[in-house]
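pasting OmpA family protein for the record, 149 residues
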Amino acid sequence: TTEENGDKITDINFELTNFDDLIVKEDNQEKIDVNPIYFEFDKADITPQAAEELDKVIYVMNQFSDVKIKIESHADCRGNAKYNRGLTDRRAKSTQKYILDVGKIDSSRIESAVGYGEDRPKIVCETCSLCTEEQHSENRRSDFIIIEK
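structre below
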């Protein structure tokens, strides 16, 4: 930077971020590491808690401009399967809109935002009624899958 020991360069602001610290590898996929995103019952509105987690997705996408993702939202097995598919799809689209609008992320960097309802559970129970509340909670999730980096 300079040839003099002890000289300082001021007014430079930067941070180093390790990509691997921001992702989790699961089922042969890389996903942005976020806490579960919770929605109010029967709603797709972004809550303050959801916004906090989505801000982590925005951070990754802003720090690593080559990252492209797809959004997948899932429900537990309770309720009507067709209804759950529609609800999770609205939630996936809501999270996509938040990331694009708040993060000013180019729409080409989100390949898709799809709700799968209860069709892809993380935890499969013998019957829905045998799932614990914790298992239901794990099945209600949104994944931000990295498709390009």
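The mean pLDDT is 90.
The helical segments are 48-63, 81-103, 133-139.
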